[in-house]
C-alpha cells in the first residue's frame, strides 16, 4: 500500500508522458520522408517535441543542433518528473542525473581528443544544469584544450579521476570513457544501498547489472574483432562485475580464437537466449544490446508499476527514442532508402 500511495501520482504522470513516445508506425512515416527539413517538421507536430525546434530554420538543421534540441527534450522530461517526485524518488533522479553529466563529459572528450581543442556549445543546457549540477557548462565549453577542460572540473567528483588519467602519456578516449562508466556504476551501488529500499535496489540491479554485463560483452567483441588484443589485455578492460554473465562464459568469450567461437559462447549466455535475434547469424552487438535491455526495462516497469522502475524505464526509453531519431534523420540526410532506414530503428 505504501508504494501505491507514494507512486500513484508519479505513475500516472509517467503513463501520460509514455503515451507521447514515438510509435513504430510514426517512425515508418518519418523514414519515408525525403529531407531532414521534412523530418524536423514532423517532429514539430509531436507533443513531446513541441517548441523544441522553433528557433531553427533550414540552414541550421545540422546534426549538432538537432541533437541538442532532442537532448533538451529529455532534460525537460526529467525536470517534469523531478517536480512530481518525493524526496526518496528525487534521490534516485539525482543519481540518474550523474548519467547526464557523464554523457556531456564524454561528448567533450570525443570532441577534443582528435584535435586537442574543444569546440562544443553547451549553453543550451545551462539553465537545466544550473538546477541540478555543480558543473559550469559555459566554463567547460570555453576551455581551449583538454588540460584546461579537466582543470575546470576541479571541485567536482570527476576531477581527481580525470586529472590522474590526464597525467598518463598514452591515455586514450577509451580510457576516459571506461573510467567514467566505472565511477558511475560504483556510485550507483553506493547510493542505492544507502537511500533505496531492498525492492527498489533489486529492480535497479536488474537493469544496471544487465547493462554492465552487456558492456563487457561489447568490449570483448570489439577487442577481438577490431583490435585483436591478447586475452590479458582484454581482461584489463573489463568491469570486474558479473550479474547474469557467468565468469566461465566471460573467459570463454575472451579466449575465443574466432568470431564464430565468440558467438557460439554468446548463444549460451542469458543474453544470447533472451534475444530474439539468431545469434548464429552474428547480429550487430549494439542492436542486440538495445533489444535485450528494452525487454528488461519494460518488464521491470510492467511488473512493478508503482515503483522506482517506472521512472527508470521511462527515462531509458526516452533516451533510446532520441538515438533512433538521430539515426533516422542522419540516414535521411545521406539519402538511404526507407526500408534500410527503418531497419535501423524498428525491430523487424
Rg is 21 Å
Question: How far apart lie the N and C ends?
Answer: 40 Å
Taking the sheet with the most strands, its summary is: none
Shape field: globular
Query: What is the averaged pLDDT score?
Result: 92
Question: What fraction, in percent, of the residue positions are helical?
Answer: over 70%
Structural account:
With 348 residues, the chain is mainly alpha-helical. The protein has a domain at 87-195. The chain has 18 helices and no strands. The chain has helices at residues 2-18, 24-31, 36-44, 63-84, 87-113, 126-132, 137-141, 146-151, 159-166, 173-195, 198-227, 231-237, 247-254, 259-268, 270-274, 285-303, 308-333, 338-345. Helix 1 packs parallel to helix 17. The longest helix is centred in the middle third of the chain and has 30 residues, at 198-227. It is globular and about 55 Å long.
Topology at a glance:
Elements: H1 2-18, H2 24-31, H3 36-44, H4 63-84, H5 87-113, H6 126-132, H7 137-141, H8 146-151, H9 159-166, H10 173-195, H11 198-227, H12 231-237, H13 247-254, H14 259-268, H15 270-274, H16 285-303, H17 308-333, H18 338-345
Helix pairs in contact: 1-17, 2-18, 4-17, 5-10, 11-16, 13-14, 16-17, 17-18
Short descriptors:
single chain, 348 residues, mainly alpha, 18 helices, ATPase
How would you summarize what this structure contains?
With 348 residues, this protein is mostly helical. It has helices at residues 2-18, 24-31, 36-44, 63-84, 87-113, 126-132, 137-141, 146-151, 159-166, 173-195, 198-227, 231-237, 247-254, 259-268, 270-274, 285-303, 308-333, 338-345. The protein has a domain at 87-195.
